[in-house]
Amino acid sequence: MSHVSEIMEHNHTFVENKEYEAYRTSKFPNKKTIIITCMDTRLVELLPKAMNFKNGDVKVIKNAGGIISQPFGSVMRSVLVAIYELSADEVIVVGHHECGMASLNADHMIQEMIERGVSEQVMSTLENSGIKLTKWLRGFDNVTAAVEHTVGVIKKHPLLPPNIPVHGMVIDPTTGALDLVVEGYNK
User: Is residue 173 within 8 Å of 43, Cβ to Cβ?
Assistant: First the structure.
């Protein structure tokens, strides 16, 4: 059975048994908070438990490394939508130790792309168009510095209201222990 078939079979039972009722909430975050974090599988359940959040409490934005690399990209747009349209009034950036973005090797990833069928012509066209894949696929060396950088990108954004606190934390993906890196209440 394929993953999609398993998902659909489970979903049918989930809906039929009305298991969704335990998760009902509104689109507005109860704790008026936005969490920007990594897509790491270890954080799916650990992070909300470690931060005492339940379904409906926060808006969670996940991407590789939990970083904002482009101030006018989709992650920052999501932050602004959560603030202006969904009543969020606080932001917490949460990085984690042992992050895959800390060891990301752009050259290796580009080689993997080619081995999995992306043509050399596509790679050449992107490079000739000014898209430097080795720069775009760059990770970071230090998770604390990466969190501080993302907090800075958000704080300095020209469309962010000046009264929004932006915090930074680093979580241990094994124990859930949090370290406060940036205290956002201190302007």
Answer: yes
147, 91 contact by CB (below 8 A): no
If we measure between CA atoms, which residue out of 185, 180, 178 comes closest to residue 47?
178
The pTM score is 0.93
Give buried/exposed letters for 5-21 (b at 16+ CB in 10 A, else e). Answer: eeeeeeeeeeeeeeeee
Instruction: Quickly list DSSP for 96-116.
Output: ETT-GGGG--HHHHHHHHHHT
Report how far residue 165's alpha carbon sits from residue 187's, in angstroms, rounded to the nearest whole number. 8
As its CATH architecture, domain 25-98+140-187 has 3-Layer(aba) Sandwich (3.40)
Report residue 99 as tokens: 């992050």
Helix (H) or strand (E) holding 133, with range, is helix 133-136
Record the tokens describing residue 78, joined without a space: 């999501």
| Dmax (CA) of the chain | 55
* Each residue's pLDDT tens digit, 66-97: 999 889 999 999 999 999 999 999 999 999 99
